[in-house]
Amino acid sequence: MYECFLEIAFEAELNTNEDPECLALAFEQCNENPVTRDASIRELRELIYERGECKPHRTDDAFLLRFLRVRDFIVPRAHKLLVRYCNFRAEYPHLYKDVDLWGLTKVKDVYEGSMLDRPDVGRLTIFRFGMWDPSEFPVEDLVRVGMAMAEIGVRQPKIQVLGGTVIIDLEGITLRHIATLTPTIAYQMVCLMGVATPGRLNSCHLINYNWLLNSFFYIYKRFIPQKAWGRIFFHGHDLKSLHQHIDPECLPKRYGGTCRNHVSIGQWIQKIKKYRDAQFDKEMKDLGYLIKE
């Protein structure tokens, strides 16, 4: 049953078509009005050309819609996010240019996620930083995976609308991990959580941390926008506190949950490779990724 669910979920993972349920949620959660949507897209496109602050690699309706949805269809805010997105890509091309997308399976269980995509949680992603062995691959690969996940996930209309929830599990974190977290790496990771990408971050939860949290979080906090602090929660080892924000039905057993529909990033990328189509390959190549057979 579990494998059957995953196969169905991954077939839908690359679906970029709108559906009535998604459109209804877009009205509720993104202030999206079907009557004025096309006009808002045109307004954003005209703003790009008028101001000349960025040169996005795409300006088609589907692409611009991502930025409008995450900024509640307020065109100036969507434009500002698009400028940050373009600047981020221009500043750090090594995070995607000529990166072998299928080779990112190397990170294995450091990232995992739920395929439930419920309106109250969105896409749940779990970052288990302590599972990473710094001697196996550089910390930049963790950022590369995060960027690829963001680009692939936001292709789906339902993810554009529902957004995502992040759990940062710091169990097993050591000074070896902390030593890799330069201000640049910290800035890049914060940017990938909605600061410079068209993704809606519903909330972020830190769990299973020890005294090293002060060092870990000190590096990050300078880059976190003031308005984002209301969506960041610290639970320590208190799972009941976590459950007050995330329904246990969405959580794996290790966090006191009942959800079995979790996959590692390695599984996720392998399934993406299996079910991708020509349009997916084109979009990812246009972004700069290597797509090998």
From TrEMBL:
An annotated GO cellular component: membrane
Organism superkingdom: Eukaryota
Gene3D superfamilies, per database record: CRAL-TRIO lipid binding domain, N-terminal domain of phosphatidylinositol transfer protein sec14p
Gene Ontology terms, MF aspect: phosphatidylinositol bisphosphate binding
InterPro entries documented for this protein: CRAL-TRIO_dom, CRAL-TRIO_dom_sf, CRAL/TRIO_N_dom, CRAL/TRIO_N_dom_sf
CRAL-TRIO domain: residues covered: 103-263
Record-linked PANTHER family: ALPHA-TOCOPHEROL TRANSFER PROTEIN-RELATED (PTHR10174), SD01558P (PTHR10174:SF234)
Record protein name field: CRAL/TRIO domain-containing protein
Organism name: Papilio xuthus (Asian swallowtail butterfly)
Gene of this entry: LOC106119545
